[in-house]
Design brief:
The complex is a heterodimer of chains A (about 130) and B (about 550). With about 130 residues, chain A is mostly beta strands. Chain A contains 1 helix and 8 strands; from the N terminus they run αββββββββ. Chain A has a 5-stranded mixed sheet with strand order 2-8-7-4-5, with no helix packed on it. Chain A has a 3-stranded antiparallel sheet with strand order 1-3-6, with no helix packed on it. Chain A is globular, with a radius of gyration of 22 Å. Helices cover about 10% and strands about 40% of the residues of chain B. Chain B is built from 6 helices and 30 strands. A 9-stranded mixed sheet of chain B has the order 25-28-23-22-30-29-24-27-26. In chain B, strands 3, 5, 6, 8, 9 and 11 form a 6-stranded antiparallel sheet that branches. Classes of the chains: A mainly beta (about 130), B mainly beta (about 550). Chains A and B meet through β4, β5 and β6 of A and β22 and β29 of B.
Chain lengths: ~130, ~550
């Protein structure tokens, strides 16, 4: 009986030491609005495609690190704006400011520090 | 003898039977233009016909091409004259008959056709003239003269002025009522060589390097000093004009709106380098031998102080002052925000040199018979735009400066350009400031320029940090709220912009921000090398 109790205790301790997420279903970040949720592990998503002044943006990253967010013209792909961010793994809620951009069609692009493309989304400044 | 007399009578009778007179109609004057007055005469010729005391003629004219003005009886004194007219009718000649046989056609109308001799014809008007005299009319007696105004055939449905008047029938009678055989002098009256009139659809093709913004350009067509047509070009750079007239000489000009948002991007450091080089070379004007320009029109474009096409240091310093945002005190012609200085002319002559003068021929003349004259290519340029970034490059041979002249100082050429990679990037630093860095590894640049656009409601420009080298002339100035111009230039073409991060702009956020996407964008981004090569910066 004593051995049985010891075994039960040992098993309980082992379970207690294990990571929770090995047993739990992945949960969605409750802080990310549905309109900005990204199913994939990496990506970029704007809350709206037609934008007037500014728009919320989610940048979902695989690792902590430096990334570039580029805005390219929707016709000739010319780069017209670029920022460098230092962000964390997972969802990063940011903004895109379009008030000073011409009314036109654009592509917003997520790349790593070395210009490798991780995600794209088109949008329109109206 | 009896037989001979019988034969003679028979011959006389035969001759009498086949003798005939004629109705002749023809213009009295020469007409050449739409709007001219055509004077037509209608005339009796006896020929070998019998004596005529009653002459009646019926003719029709095309009322889409001719407009009745008046008529004048030419009947001899003592004769009676009458005129009738009906609009909207056209004569139907007798089938299977000679349409020139006027008495046959008369008989057809009078006795045979009934209501079928005329049909409805909106384009035609019928005129009928009657002259009756107690005595026989003399050979060559005119019946009447008509005055018609020549109308424009544009939109009439007719492509020429053929058969605009036709005599339908004639009733010539002797005093006893005997019908005189009559023929007409021609099938119908034609007019040729009529000039003028509506030129129809006229097209202007705009020629400019600024192909993304055709709709920012307008055109003005003048006849003498009077403006006859104005409007804007469409997205394809075309304008369709109506209401011009053939054989009239007009002038055309194009203008770029002074409200265009990119006017501060027209004159840049590349233009400055070209003007400085020209000033150093001291070559100017069509006969200048040491010029550095490729085209004579560049003398006009570079003369921003407006002293008669002379390009010197006044012009280069004026452009430098403009780029630096310094008010020189001079009134300059530099195309800039809110100001355009246009040059335009027919593309085939644009920038040509005649008698040592650079020309911008503007005149054109639509000609009805020449379809190519219904379209013109109108070239446009801007003062200060010496490298033609927003202007049309001349194609006319005489507009190019001589090859030998170009080769003698081939260090500078607006035609040279190359691409180079740079990195422009914004980020938030540890102090919460937004830092916009221009990172360049491009070697050999004696000048560079960046027009940076930012959101002035979110960012305030605090500082511009230059690290271009010790002797470069740097400049930064706010063109307008939210646009800053940054750059450098070495007037001696010796010192080059230092590699690394030559420019850094520091902004203070006016609200809490987590990132800077879209807050800062870039428009003009170009450099120039000592040999005049323009560098187009490519950002990965």
């Amino acid at each position: 009986m004593k051995k049985l109790l010891l075994l039960l205790l040992t098993f309980t301790i082992l379970i207690g030491c294990a990571k929770d997420d090995e047993f739990l279903e992945p949960i969605t970040n409750e802080e990310v609005p549905q309109s900005l949720q990204i199913k994939e592990l990496i990506g970029i998503k704007l809350e709206n495609t037609i934008v007037t002044d500014r728009v919320a943006m989610n940048v979902k990253l695989p690792l902590d690190g430096k990334y570039r967010i580029k805005i390219r013209h929707g016709i000739n792909n010319e780069l017209i704006s670029q920022e460098m961010i230092e962000a964390e793994e997972g969802d990063n809620l940011l903004r895109v400011y379009v008030a000073s951009l011409d009314k036109s069609g654009y592509m917003i692009q997520l790349t790593d520090e070395f210009h490798n493309i991780l995600g794209n989304q088109s949008f329109v400044v109206n | 003898m009896k037989k001979i007399l019988l034969l003679l009578v028979s011959v006389m009778f035969t001759l009498s039977s086949y003798g005939q007179s004629s109705i002749d109609y023809s213009p009295v004057n020469t007409v050449t233009q739409v709007g001219d007055t055509l004077i037509m005469k209608f005339q009796y010729f006896k020929v070998d016909g019998n004596d005529l005391t009653l002459g009646q003629l019926d003719f029709e004219y095309n009322n889409k091409l001719l407009s009745y003005i008046s008529h004048e009886s030419q009947a001899p004194t003592g004769a009676s004259f009458a005129r009738n007219n009906w609009t909207g009718y056209k004569y139907v000649p007798k089938a299977d008959s000679d349409e020139d046989d006027m008495d046959v056609q008369y008989t057809w109308w009078k006795d045979e056709a009934g209501s079928n001799s005329y049909e409805a014809g909106a384009d035609w008007s019928v005129e009928r003239i009657t002259v009756q005299s107690a005595s026989a009319l003399e050979n060559g007696q005119e019946f009447v003269k008509y005055n018609f105004k020549i109308k424009d055939k544009f939109g009439s449905g007719y492509s020429n002025y053929n058969d605009i008047i036709k005599v339908n029938w004639a009733n010539y009678q002797e005093s006893d009522g005997t019908q005189i055989q009559t023929t007409r002098s021609k099938d119908g009256q034609d007019l040729s060589g009529i000039e003028g009139g509506n030129a129809g659809a006229f097209v202007i093709n705009l020629k400019t390097a600024n192909t993304s913004n055709y709709t920012d350009y307008s055109y003005t067509i003048k006849q003498g000093s009077e403006s006859v047509a104005t409007g804007n070009f469409d997205e394809s750079g075309q304008a369709s004009i109506s209401g011009l007239e053939n054989n009239v000489t007009y002038t055309a000009q194009a203008n770029l709106t002074e409200g265009a948002e990119y006017l501060d991007e027209v004159v840049t450091v590349s233009d400055l380098a070209l003007v400085f080089a020209e000033a150093i070379g001291a070559g100017s004007g069509p006969s200048g031998g040491s010029t550095t320009f490729d085209y004579f029109v560049q003398d006009i474009m570079a003369d921003v102080v407006g002293d008669g096409g002379v390009v010197d240091f006044q012009d280069s310093y004026e452009i430098l002052a403009y780029l630096q945002g310094v008010t020189s005190g001079n009134t300059n012609l530099i195309t800039q925000d809110g100001q355009t200085e246009d040059y335009s002319g027919i593309a085939s002559t644009y920038g040509a040199v005649a008698n040592d003068v650079v020309t911008f021929a503007k005149s054109f003349t639509p000609i009805d018979s020449d379809a190519t004259s219904k379209t013109i290519d109108l070239a446009h340029g801007l003062v200060g735009d010496v490298n033609f970034s927003h202007s049309y490059t001349p194609v006319v041979e005489s507009g190019g400066k001589s090859t030998s002249a170009r080769q003698s100082s081939a260090r500078y050429s607006k035609t040279q350009s190359e691409d180079a990679n740079i990195d422009l990037i914004s980020e938030i630093n540890d102090e919460g400031q937004v830092v916009f860095s221009i990172n360049s590894d491009v070697e050999g640049m004696v000048g560079s320029q960046f027009n940076i656009v930012y959101d002035p409601n979110v960012l305030s420009l605090e500082n511009v940090i230059f690290d271009t080298g010790n002797t470069m002339t740097n400049f930064s100035n706010i063109v307008q709220d939210g646009i800053v111009r940054v750059g450098s230039f070495d007037q001696n073409f010796e010192t080059t912009v230092k590699e690394g991060t030559p420019y850094k702009l520091i902004f203070t956020p006016l609200e809490t921000i987590e990132n800077t996407s879209g807050l800062i964008s870039f428009r003009v981004k170009e450099g120039v090398k000592a040999d005049g090569t323009k560098i187009n910066f490519i950002i990965q």
